[in-house]
Design a protein that fits this description.
The chain has about 280 residues and is mainly alpha-helical. About 75% of the residues lie in helices and about 0% in strands.
Length: about 280
């Protein structure tokens, strides 16, 4: 049977435009990054990416991003659950506030968080009285990354909860299942792929954050210096091969996270959760 002629541009034109756009916006800049690393030898590359200062920045960036994504996986799910299942005054305002980290400039977020969590701030002062240093410490990095990556979990889980029939939970309750059993047996298996995808997106976003962290972290080498800041430091010192080498490592990590996210989405589709 002959295919119906479409009034919009056909496959060849749209595919050509798509590949050209992706090549210009994504592939060529990334290829240039790899080309820049060729100006140094393999031994110099390894020495740069495995130096003590760089490894310390890796450790802080990955652990802080993982901690922030883990926190958001739990509380982001709770926020999405409340927004989907309950009606209350101010619901639309709270729903809009979830997207605030998307629109807020990261420098503004960093200044705001530093003012609140500094030793003299609203939250920082009582925490300091308990012996907890929030700002200018690794904890401050986690706080900033948690703030900017929260929407990724909420907006990933929210549509799944909206499509989830509440009758399934009511049926489980009518068959004698308790609340925890209903959550573990009925709700969790359905939303778990979405939560994991939100976790991966949150982790990837937190891993590349720069603007909001530089204010609250203190930027102390070997202690509170994240990898994106170290890359900027190398660029300011005109160490372009070194900056490119560290950036390639972060690019590889981002690619692996993207691959994991796509695998999670594929898993969700196979389970019939996403269409």
């Amino acid at each position: 049977m002959a295919s119906r002629r479409s009034i919009i541009p056909g496959f060849n034109i749209t595919m050509g435009l798509t590949l050209s756009y992706l090549a210009a916006m994504v592939l060529l800049p990334l290829a240039a990054l790899f080309v820049k690393t060729t100006t140094s030898t393999w031994q110099e590359f390894l020495q740069t990416v495995t130096s003590a200062r760089v490894v310390a920045s890796y450790r802080l960036s990955f652990l802080a991003a993982f901690a922030a994504a883990s926190i958001n996986a739990v509380f982001g799910f709770l926020v999405a659950w409340v927004l989907v299942r309950y009606n209350f005054p101010g619901k639309r305002i709270i729903d809009g506030l979830v997207d605030l980290p998307f629109a807020l400039p990261t420098a503004v977020a960093g200044i705001s968080l530093t003012a609140v969590y500094a030793p003299s701030g609203l939250f920082g002062k009582p925490l300091a009285a308990l012996g907890i240093k929030s700002a200018f410490s690794p904890l401050g990095v986690v706080i900033a990354l948690t703030f900017i990556s929260l929407p990724f979990v909420v907006r990933t889980v929210q549509p799944i909860l909206q499509n989830l029939e509440i009758e399934n939970e009511e049926a489980a309750a009518s068959l004698g299942a308790g609340r925890m059993q209903t959550f573990l047996r009925v709700l969790l298996p359905t939303v778990l792929p979405a939560v994991l995808t939100g976790f991966a997106l949150s982790f990837a976003r937190a891993l590349g954050e720069y603007g909001s962290v530089v204010f609250i972290s203190g930027n102390m080498p070997m202690k509170t210096e994240i990898t994106p800041l170290l890359i900027m430091t190398k660029l300011e010192q005109f160490d372009y091969p070194g900056a490119a080498a560290v950036a390639v490592v972060m690019l590889a990590a981002s690619f692996l996270i993207l691959l994991a996210t796509n695998l999670l989405q594929w898993w969700g589709k196979r389970r019939g959760i996403w269409v």
